[in-house]
Design brief:
heterodimer, A: about 290 residues, mainly alpha, 2 strands, about 70% helix, about 5% strand, globular, B: about 350 residues, two-stranded antiparallel ribbon, two-stranded antiparallel sheet, 15 helices
């Protein structure tokens, strides 16, 4: 029973990692760039939700929706203003750029007097509730994480499978030039992908907020989502979620069974092993450049 | 405008290309030698930090700027060097031997990290080094019998076979000598076949491989050298601060090191030094300007992070070649005075099909 309990809390944590990793993968697939600001986007989303709920006094659902929409808009703007000008430069530049964006986001939030340096609780209706299923004690907050992740995954799956927009995104991620020749507005799509990634990050932030707290450094969890993305294979959307789940479960089990301190590095040990054994990840595609 | 009339192939690889170089670098050397008498103690300490960071920057520059492998966990090598030095010095080992061990151990660790680098590239390598950095930081925190855990560890003054280097000036000269040695070493390496091989790997792995460069060997070598230099810098850093704890070698330190070489200018030895000057003087500059800003900006704790972020974004967007690139532009402008054109340093954008295939 205890094992099951641990696995469930691991899955909940893993879903958060998976959602952030989903953001990485979306951006990576579409624009071939890696965003190190994903954790900070998540933090901004959580703060956005907090602002909507406590300061503006929005009802719960409206606050959630407006925070997500706001972040999506922010993502589109970010792409337009900062990322697009340096497309085509080495990947390293963009990595540094997004690290810079992360610094700025964290710095700005910390600078808000009275709010930025505190930790806050997000007032959600399901706070501190517990379901008892047999001998299992299920935390509703964790269930909310798992449920929303499942719904979001289905929605994304449908988007990429059935909508014209999703198919266009797939095409442009496979070959931008060819997609461009087919009349797909690649630049606009890239903007939309950043918006989508930011929205997913905001959802992750809003889901994580009741479990931990809302504070300026919560974005560092994004660094744990990298292992998730790599374990799943950096270019694969289902891989991101599966990778996240693996990392979450391993971490949760390591926290209980292994000595102190292993929990914090379990994710990194897993990814190092993965890189040595199967560098392309579980679902990654194997590609070679032909000369 | 200066025209160099080349009569000999040896001129191409001479370290000092013309008299101007000799003059200005000698002047710089004299200035650095005279620094203890010119600057107050506080500024001398800052200068020492610049030298220490420049040594670490040289290492990272060799790896990221010249071999094209980038490491997000370089603080770990710094930490390995620092802890080795601390433990050995406290056990009474003389400074040069301890330093050699610190460099050697860091290099050995770098070698181990370099091994996955043979299979993974680009972002995967970044994540491998990132993970490695986290693991090493955790080891520092948990291996309490050796590292003192989160409480940190104190380190004695360097001891040159009985001659104690307790004062700030003596330690400054020590750092200066090591920094100059490291710089000359790197410059010499870069004009040797090994250095050329590194640059060839950076520019295209496939063409380097087809020209007979053993990728695995050179990549691991680059990692080991870079880690070794970081280890030396870490050892000096430990002596300078006299107290080290695991949180000095976390991911933020790694990012600071990267920020340093990007701001300084990737792919130039000058860049490591310019970046170190930037990294050390920035907090000072912020502290000075702070008082003139309105209180809600000046006293905010996030100001430094914000400024770092903005500077980083600014450099990547507007000056990808860094401070050194800016200097090159200014110099070219002055040398060719009325004939400078806007596109002279224009970078070719490469819209290749996919980076994933490289």
């Amino acid at each position: 029973m205890q094992l099951l309990q641990l696995i469930i809390s691991g899955i909940a944590q893993g879903c958060i990692y998976g959602l952030i990793a989903l953001g990485f993968v979306l951006i990576y697939k579409a624009t071939e760039t890696v965003s190190f600001a994903q954790g900070e986007l998540m933090m901004l989303g959580a703060f956005g939700g907090l602002a909507c709920m406590t300061m503006l006094g929005f009802p719960f659902w409206l606050a959630i929706l407006s925070a997500i929409a706001g972040m999506a808009l922010f993502g589109v703007l970010l792409e337009r203003l900062v990322i697009r000008p340096i497309l085509g430069q080495p990947a390293f530049s963009i990595v540094m750029l997004t690290i810079g964006v992360g610094y700025v986001a964290r710095g700005l939030i910390t600078m808000i007097p009275g709010i930025g340096t505190e930790t806050h609780t997000l007032p959600v209706p399901y706070k501190d509730q517990i379901w008892n299923v047999g001998a299992l004690v299920l935390n509703v907050e964790q269930m909310a994480v798992i449920g929303s992740t499942a719904v979001l995954c289905l929605a994304l799956f449908a988007l990429f499978k059935y909508s014209k927009l999703g198919i266009a995104m797939q095409a442009s991620s496979q070959n931008q030039l060819a997609a461009y020749y087919m009349g797909i507005p690649v630049k606009r799509l890239n903007g939309l992908v950043w918006g989508l990634a930011a929205a997913v990050a905001a959802i992750a932030g809003l889901l994580l907020a009741p479990i931990t707290f809302v504070h300026a450094n919560m974005g560092f969890i994004g660094l744990k989502a990298f292992p998730a993305a790599v374990v799943g294979g950096f270019g694969s959307l289902p891989g991101a979620i599966v990778g996240g789940l693996i990392i979450g479960i391993v971490e949760s089990l390591a926290g209980f069974y292994a000595p102190d301190g292993i929990k914090d590095i379990a994710a990194y040990v897993v990814v190092l092993i993965m890189l040595m054994v199967k560098p392309n990840g579980l679902f990654g595609e194997k590609l070679r450049k032909k000369v | 405008m200066r025209f160099i009339f080349k009569t000999d192939y040896g001129q191409d690889i001479k370290l000092a290309k013309h008299g101007g170089h000799i003059f200005w670098y000698s002047l710089l050397l004299v200035l650095l030698l005279a620094a203890p008498w010119l600057f107050a103690e506080y500024w001398l300490a800052q200068l020492t930090f610049i030298l220490i960071y420049a040594i670490a920057g040289l290492g990272l520059m060799l790896l990221a700027g010249f071999t094209g492998l980038f490491s997000l966990g370089h603080a770990a090598f710094l930490g390995v060097g620092a802890y080795t030095q601390a433990v050995m010095t406290n056990a009474g080992v003389p400074f040069p031997i301890a330093l050699a061990c610190a460099a050697g151990l860091s290099a050995a660790v770098g070698l181990v990290v370099g091994l996955p680098a043979l299979r993974v590239k680009g972002i995967y390598l970044g994540i491998a080094t990132l993970s490695f950095g986290f693991i090493v930081e955790e080891v520092f925190a948990r291996w309490e019998s050796v590292t003192g855990g989160n409480a940190g560890i104190h380190i004695k003054a360097p001891d040159m076979f009985g001659w104690k280097l307790g004062s700030g000036e003596a330690f400054y000269f020590l750092c200066l000598v090591i920094a100059i040695g490291a710089t000359l070493g790197i410059l010499n390496l870069l004009r040797s076949p090994t250095g050329r091989a590194f640059v060839a790997i950076r520019d295209s792995e496939i063409s380097a491989q087809s020209m007979g460069i053993h990728l695995a060997r050179y990549k691991t070598l680059s990692f080991a050298l870079s880690a070794g230099l970081a280890g030396i810098a870490g050892a000096l850093y430990a002596h300078k601060l006299q107290f080290i704890s695991p949180d000095q070698f976390n991911i933020l330190q790694s990012i600071d090191l990267l920020l340093m070489i990007v701001v300084g200018g990737l792919g130039s030895v000058h860049g490591a030094f310019l970046g170190a000057i930037f990294l050390i003087s920035m907090p000072q500059a912020i502290a000075m300007v702070k008082d003139y800003l309105p209180a809600f900006i000046g006293q905010a704790p996030g100001l430094q992070g914000l400024v770092y972020g903005l500077v980083l974004i600014g450099f990547v967007l507007f000056e990808p070649l860094g401070l050194y690139g800016r200097w090159l532009k200014i110099r070219t402008y002055l040398q060719t005075f009325p004939f400078y054109r806007k596109g002279m340093f224009k970078r070719q954008k490469s819209f290749q099909k996919s980076d994933r295939l490289k």
